[in-house]
Amino acid sequence: MAVLWTSIDAAVATGGRATRPFMATGLSIDTRSIRPGEMFVALKDVRDGHDFVADALKKGAACALVSRIPEGCSEEDPLLLVPDVLRALEDLGRAGRARARAQVIAVTGSVGKTSTKEMLRAVLSAQGRVHAAEASFNNHWGVPITLARMPAEADFAVIEVGMNHPGEISPLVKMARPHAAMITTVAAAHLEAFETLDDIAREKAAIFDGLEPGGTAVVPTGLESTPILLAAAKARAGQVVTFGPAPGSDYRLVSAKIAGDATIVQAEQAGKPMLFKVMTPGKHFANNALGVLALARAVGADPAVAALDIGLWAPPAGRGTRERIWLDLIDEAQSFDLFDDAFNANPASMEAGLEVLAGQVPRDGVGRVKRGRRVAILGDMLELGAGEARLHAAIAELPAMVSIDIVHLAGPRMRALHEALPREKRGEWVETARDLAARAPHLVDAGDVVLVKGSKGSKVSLVVDALRKLGQPGAAEAFKGKE
Description:
Blueprint: E1 5-6, H1 7-14, E2 17-18, E3 23-24, E4 26-28, E5 38-41, H2 53-58, E6 63-66, E7 79-81, H3 85-99, E8 103-108, H4 113-124, E9 130-132, H5 142-148, E10 156-160, H6 169-176, E11 180-183, H7 197-205, E12 216-220, H8 226-236, E13 239-244, E14 251-259, E15 262-269, E16 272-278, H9 283-298, H10 303-309, E17 321-326, E18 335-341, H11 347-358, E19 374-379, H12 388-393, E20 406-410, H13 415-420, E21 426-430, H14 433-437, H15 440-443, E22 449-453, H16 461-468, H17 475-478
Enzyme class: ligase
Domain Mur ligase C-terminal: 329-455
Keywords: ATP-binding, Cell cycle, Cell division, Cell shape, Cell wall biogenesis/degradation, Cytoplasm, Ligase, Nucleotide-binding, Peptidoglycan synthesis
């Protein structure tokens, strides 16, 4: 692998001292996944990363970024000594950004940051070398790590920027210095830290603070907070491009029709008709795809090729991926479809997920029930503040809920939804996702289409795991290509 940081380069960037020469091919903050040749960054969280330096070096780390010589190590080991490890990581991120030739894109939003980042990766990969984090590295650690990992020869870089509290986005995007930046949407999320949606919008709009001179701001239309976003964009960007359903949008969504595992998108760009396909169901994916096309054009990519290549994208695991679970090795009809969206949830993303489920067609005549159902299995939405009970109960009033046959729920906050649902739609409600996972065989049947969604902290991924285990080993291979 190519050398990313030499001891000299890293020492100059951080102002640190290298105990001996080294050449690092990457960065890692986790000894469980570190690869030989990488620099181990000894950050402090629940545990102090210095406690794991000796283990990292034994696993082949090229060096360790530390603020002291850890136990079990000495000056003979390849260490980069700095006063503060997090500050040094930020310095590496700035230096990585400064030496890069890439066109840099920053993405934030209440919903859809990671899926948009991955859509950009798919769209831009055919037109140059793309650098983007593999995971949701979007916080005060993730952004500098992503920048510090950026190869100098990358053509495009996509930086995901998140927040939980006021004041987080601006310093991160000033570090990233994007040529183009996009807000996917503004919705009720992290309301424990923000009083109103307008406060969230103002924090999201800080993504434009770090734009390079003449940079492009890509702004969603059709939101109550769109005026706030537009005002911030116009104050800081050289060019403002809008996308969404509102008349007058530069990239206007005309319609998004779910057709099986795809979404057919009709749109207009500067008044000219566009027709393309997103190879996953969901109006929200179609809308964000327009923002992706705007970003691609802004950084010099061919927009026509980009529109074709959106079809190469599929959602990351846990963010709306669809799979078939076969319950029988002989009869392929004895199966159900599972949407795994267990990584994140707030009212907006919950509405989007239920819209996708409502658009699916179950299969009748199989299983115990003999009637295919749309089944929602939902876990708590976290960080919604004082109005969390009202926001959970309001899910019962969503238009998509009319088409949902039964709703199983896990978590104390979801009790409010259980009580708000019509009696005929009420499935099981339990305190924890683990309790619901234990009931997996009773929650679904052959012919069903099942959505599992909740905040990561609700642990509804346990239910996903339990549902997968209902499948017969080897059935996927036996029925491959017969779906």
